Structures are given as C-alpha cells and as structure tokens.
Amino acid sequence: xxxxxxxxxxxxxxxxxxxxxxxxxxxxxxxxxxxxxxxxxxxxxxxxxxxxxxxxxxxxxxxxxxxxxxxxxxxxxxxxxxxxxxxxxxxxxxxxxxxxxxxxxxxxxxxxxxxxxxxxxxxxxxxxxxxxxxxxxxxxxxxxxxxxxxxxxxxxxxxxxxxxxxxxxxxxxxxxxxxxxxxxxxxxxxxxxxxxxxxxxxxxxxxxxxxxxxxxxxxxxxxxxxxxxxxxxxxxxxxxxxxxxxxxxxxxxxxxxxxxxx
Length: 262
Known about the structure:
The chain is an alpha/beta fold. The chain has helices at residues 40-44, 70-84, 96-107, 132-135, 142-153, 156-161, 176-187, 216-224, 240-243, 245-258, and strands at residues 3-5, 11-17, 21-26, 47-52, 89-94, 112-118, 202-207, 229-233. Helix 2 packs across helix 3. It holds the Pfam family Abhydrolase_1.
C-alpha cells in the first residue's frame, strides 16, 4: 500500500484510483478510506481520486505523541499530495472530512480547486449539534451503538435491502485511544469566524433527515462561504452520498465540471 510520512514521521497510507484531474476524498471521523468504496467508481471514471487513511485508521500509524487535531489531519493530507507531486486538487470532504477540507481551504487556498463539503459543520459558535437523545445510544453496548449508528446513517428501508458490508460505521481495528483522539479533533473544529475567507468555489451537500449532523449546518455553511451552492438531498440521513448516490453524485460531478483545475 502506498504511504508517505507526516512531519513527525508517522506513516500515512493512501491509494490512488482513476485518471484525470486529482480529486481528494476525505472520510468521516474514525473511518478509513474504505468509506468511499461504494461510490468511488463514480468519480474515478473521470478523476484521479486520492483517498487517505487518517492517522489512527486503516493502514496509517497512530501518532507517537497521541496528538489528533483537524489541523494535523490537514497537514498529513498535504504530505500525501506532496508525495504524489499534486500541487492543486479538487477536494470532497464528508463529515469530519469536511472539517479537514475547510481547514485546507483556509490555510492552503493555493492547493484547492473546487471544494465540496458534505454532511459536515462549521464548528464553533455556528455549529448545530445533534440532540442528546440522538447520540446517547452511541455510548451503550457495542451492538446497541452499531444499531444506533446504522440508523443515523441510513433509512430503515435501505438497511432492510442492503446487508452490507458497511464502511461508514467506524474502523473496527482502531484503538480506543485513536477513537477518542478522532472525536476530540472533530469536536474541536472551529472555522465559523473564518468561513468568509474561503475563496474556492464551494458546493455544500446534506441529507434533509440527518440527525447526526443537522441539516441547518449546511445552510449555515452555504450562507457563510462566499458564493457557495447548496444541495439538500431529500429523505437522506448522514450517509446521503451512499444511499442516495443517484441523487447526490450528479450534482458533484456537474460542479466539478463547471470548475476545472486548468
């Protein structure tokens, strides 16, 4: 598996699928790059997709100092791009990956072409959090937590007709320390007062029925980022991009086509 080294020497694993302009795919909290497996072919048909295992997930190492942050994840991703010789790329980040994408767009605007933010939030004072009763079951037994997370990700009808495997329920091989580190990093994200500085053409997508990251976050992001476009996928929950692939992928491909890197 291809890999590079972060500034502190931690191994960062990644893979590349497809040909064309580069498109960086950033996964959700505590999930490896397999998060994108169900829909990656949609993008690899016309783009050179780059997916990364954030530290602590997949085939990447855990950082020796135990440091996890959105800023750290962003710098690790840039190390991957440097390893590949990619100076500029489109970015599609979902959930925590959308938080990482915001940080890259703010700190390294010259590295970003088009920016796509899915099922994510601005953090800070602008974040709309899940209701306590929504997240409470996630702290129960492993079986109960899995069932609760599955319900937050997909509609019951989808689950009835798709037995899996599911790649959006967390990396089963992560250590407890890494899981906690990812949660702290995601919870600590705050770009609310900086969003007006994002200059990349931006598309914001969200499921209308997302209780994990309420859809109001998408509305706030789109209102705060200059010129941002908003697509709400009706009936979709957190994993809108997978269950509602037929409705969610075309707007992204159209947006990228309208904002070529060249």
